[in-house]
Design a protein that fits this description.
Elements (H helix, E strand, L loop, with lengths): L1 H26 L6 H23 L3 H23 L6 H34 L1
Helix pairs in contact: 1-2, 1-3, 3-4
């Protein structure tokens, strides 16, 4: 499994990077500058490192909750862009992606540690 960790992290980070560019540039039609690509790259790198770290430390429940929150975050990201009725869809989409992903990571870690505590109490 150790050999696949970097591949999973790389794929997760690259997918996040591409989806951010696709959403901002293609759906919104915004011209991107170097700082945008740098920010998207940092977000993708962070997501990839978090995914690899969760698997490295064998926190599988936290990994799956984090991945589900990432999918939900991107779904809300695109939904906000497509259903923009008040002009703030771009801001709401990006913030919802960050908030949902962060919340999913925190929730996953909490649930994982609760499960570890329950297993230790049963022993």
């Amino acid at each position: 499994m150790g050999n696949k960790l970097w591949k999973i992290g790389f794929f997760t980070g690259l997918t996040s990077f591409v989806l951010l560019i696709l959403g901002i540039r293609t759906i919104l039609g915004t011209e991107l500058v170097f700082k945008n690509y740098l920010t998207f790259g940092i977000f993708g790198l962070t997501v990839g490192i978090l995914a690899s770290s969760l698997l490295f430390y064998k926190l599988r429940i936290a990994f799956w909750i984090f991945m589900a929150s990432l999918v939900l975050g991107f779904a809300e990201f695109f939904r906000s862009f497509l259903m923009d009725t008040n002009g703030f869809g771009d801001l709401i989409g990006v913030l919802s992606l960050f908030i949902i992903t962060t919340f999913g990571f925190g929730l996953g870690v909490i649930v994982q540690f609760i499960m570890i505590g329950i297993r230790k109490l049963k022993e």
